[in-house]
Each structure stands twice: as C-alpha cells, then as structure tokens.
Amino acid sequence: MAAQVKICGLNDEEAIDAALEAGAEFIGFVFYPKSPRAVSAEQAAELSQFVEGVCKVGLFVDPDDALLDEVTSHLRLDMLQFHGSETPERLARVRAEYGVEVMKVIPVATKDDLAAAEPFYEVVDWILFDAKPPKGADLPGGNAVSFDWSVLAGFKCPVPWMLAGGLTSANVAEAIRVTGAPAVDVSSGVEERPGVKDPAKIAAFVAAAKSAA
Ligand SMILES: O=C(O)c1ccccc1NCC(=O)[C@H](O)[C@H](O)COP(=O)(O)O
C-alpha cells in the first residue's frame, strides 16, 4: 500500500492546492509564533475554508488551553500535533476535551529514543518520529535534518505512525524502504526557503512517496 503523505507548514493557497492535487492525505498548519511557517487562527480558517477530504492538522508546541481554544474556535481541525514536552496525561485530557485525533512527536537520534513513545500509545492516535533538533536550533522541528532511519527498521509501533525529518523527493522512497513507514511528513523539503512552499516540490515529493515500494 502506498505511503500516506502529510505536507506541513502550509501558509498559502497555491501550496494547499498543490498538496491536494498531488494526493496528500494530511495538511498541516503551524501554530507556533516563532516559526517562519506560523499562521494565525484566522489565516488558517480562511485558507482551509473550502478544503475537504483531507485531514487538517494543527501543530502546537506546549500550547496552553487558551491557544487551543482560540484555534479550535476558528476552524475545525481533525488532528492536533504536539511537538513540545507535553505529557501523556496532558494529551489524554486534550484528546477527550477537544474530541479530535492527537499525534505526539517523538524526537529520535538512536534506537533508545523510541522508548519515549511507549507512555503515549494508550492516549494518542498517531506517533510521529522526527529528528532531534540540532544543538542551538530555534525550532523543535522543521529543521530539515534527518536521523539514522535504520533505527526504525523492523520496529513495530502499536499505533499508526509517521516518519519526518529532512525528507525530500530525492530521499523519501529510500526512507520508506528502510523504515517501512506507512506515512511520511515533510516541511522544509518542499520549500524554496523557510516558510515559502514550492508547489512543484510538493508534487514531486508526493509522487516520490506514493511510488515507493
Ligand atoms: O515547521 C516548523 O516551523 C515547526 C516549528 C515548531 C515545531 C515543529 C515544526 N515543524 C515540524 C514539521 O513540520 C514536521 O512535523 C517535521 O518536523 C518535518 O520537518 P522537516 O525536516 O522540515 O521536513
């Protein structure tokens, strides 16, 4: 079965259209003010008002309830992605209160890091294995860095999961082959510069992921 694809950090209509036309199953909006890809709740609502048939994901980093309330009162998100140091207890509460799917990001460098996902299996719908941010990075994700994919080879995750970190149209097929990832997530690899998506790169990435054996 072809891998599912999430295009993250979308902030303009052209890029959203490119993701939908290419066949991405998930589109992501970043609600983290320090990010060059950040959108406001109002912007995301406008951008997604006519978008149907894909899973709309909101990305947050240790958000308080006020931010979650603000965003979810403006638009219907299908999934909330958490890229900070949220605890399983916090995510269980959020999932129950907001009635949407929840995805927890687990930063990975070595095989030992995979154990950090275990406490979340009972309380989230998805796990996203992403590269650890480089030392001194301003952002906890979206840094265009990969990790050693072989740490996921043969790994059995009891919940649906995605692979992210430095993926591009040139390496995504190999990443899927090595890890067996059922879904992949990309941001930097489909941009012309941080915060500016390239529709042609989006199309090429989705095609490469979908054609991976
Ligand atoms: O994209 C951001 O600016 C960002 C900010 C804060 C936390 C996470 C962020 N991005 C995460 C992602 O877009 C993806 O989930 C993933 O890390 C892919 O990143 P990339 O290596 O850029 O493809």
Automatic annotation (TrEMBL):
Keywords: Amino-acid biosynthesis, Aromatic amino acid biosynthesis, Isomerase, Tryptophan biosynthesis. Its EC number is 5.3.1.24. It is an enzyme of class 5 (isomerase). It catalyses: N-(5-phospho-beta-D-ribosyl)anthranilate = 1-(2-carboxyphenylamino)-1-deoxy-D-ribulose 5-phosphate. Pathway: Amino-acid biosynthesis; L-tryptophan biosynthesis; L-tryptophan from chorismate: step 3/5. GO terms for biological process: L-tryptophan biosynthetic process. The keyword Isomerase applies. GO terms for molecular function: phosphoribosylanthranilate isomerase activity. The keyword Acetylation does not apply. It comes from the Bacteria. Residues 5-207 form the N-(5'phosphoribosyl) anthranilate isomerase (PRAI) domain. Belongs to the TrpF family. This is N-(5'-phosphoribosyl)anthranilate isomerase.
